[in-house]
Write a structure and sequence with these properties.
binds S-adenosylmethionine, globular, alpha/beta, Rossmann fold, seven-stranded mixed β-sheet, single chain, 9 strands
Length: about 270
């Protein structure tokens, strides 16, 4: 997983899109765990834009596993809330730049409301990591979560982008609409920088442990909170005007210079001990 690690540390900064350092580390830790434990399955994303997070998923593939990407690309009249704007040529070029064999990638240029469970299943089988980052309105978020849950492999992960983000309130509304009508067998297990992470109920403890044990992520952990039936770790803090200058500087470094922040905190704790 050397290529994936190098991509999340440096490579992703060359690709236009939205994929924070903390969320990319969460992808990395979970994909490594799945590979070490021979969890089989493809990867998938709804909403590729230029491929920033999709490339990370593809770099996590092993053996004959495949990736499924959905984006409406030039058909932007279907993008009701103008959340990004995918370009297929750019996605394919970016994939090639990072050494991903396009024969392993199935690109579906339809709206996600037209994609069926069987389309994904027939192309890549069960999905072990599904990134939901397409339309941001309530019905499509609920639709996309149903689709992702319907193909989720054992110990598989769904990452829902922009959950609880004030600029996109319908993402949260769509999540709760989906969750309340679901059988609640797929549940939240963590909140990252800008994503909610979900998995099968039986996998919660195993997947949480991977994140909690991460030497990088521990510097971004804020607290546990009981949510939808599980105590989940949160790797994010809402910025408050009441914060002290010291806290403001720390939080600024966390977002804008995460590698420096982690090195600085590690050094500080070594000097203390
Ligand atoms: C926020 S961007 C995705 C960002 C991307 N995951 C990244 O890593 O930067 C949202 C994408 O969803 C696509 N999109 C919007 N509505 C969609 C729909 N109904 N079905 C499929 N894709 C959609 C847009 O074209 C856009 O590329």
């Amino acid at each position: 997983m050397k290529e994936l690690y190098s991509y999340i540390r440096n490579g992703k900064d060359n690709i236009e899109g939205w994929f924070s350092r903390v969320d990319s580390q969460i992808f990395y830790e979970l994909l490594c765990y799945q590979n070490l434990n021979h969890i089989d399955g493809g990867v998938a994303e709804i909403g590729m834009h230029h491929g920033k997070s999709f490339i990370a998923l593809c770099l996590g593939l092993t053996g004959g596993q495949k990736a499924y990407g959905v984006d409406i690309f030039e058909n932007q009249k279907k993008n009701l809330d103008r959340s990004g704007s995918g370009v297929r040529d750019i996605v394919e070029n970016n994939l090639k730049t990072y050494g991903i064999d396009l024969a392993k990638v199935v690109i579906d240029p339809r709206g996600s409301d037209e994609v069926k469970t069987e389309d994904i299943y027939q192309a890549v089988g069960d999905v072990r990591f599904f990134s939901v980052d397409g339309g941001h309105w309530r019905d499509i978020v609920s639709n996309d979560l149903s689709l992702a849950a319907s193909v989720l492999a054992k110990d598989g992960v769904i990452a829902l982008d922009d959950f609880l983000r004030p600029e996109w309130p319908d993402v949260s509304a769509g999540f709760f609409e989906w969750f309340e009508k679901s059988d609640e067998s797929v549940v939240p297990f963590a909140i990252g920088h800008n994503k909610l992470y979900l998995c099968h109920k039986q996998s919660v403890g195993r997947l949480q442990k991977i994140l909690i044990d991460s030497r990088f992520l521990k510097h971004f952990f804020n607290k546990y909170y009981m949510f939808c039936g599980n105590n989940i770790p949160i790797f994010q803090s809402y910025h408050l005007p009441e914060w002290s200058m010291r806290r403001r500087i720390y939080e600024y470094l966390k977002i804008h210079h995460p590698e420096f922040y982690v090195r600085f905190r590690s050094l500080k704790s070594r000097l203390r001990n």
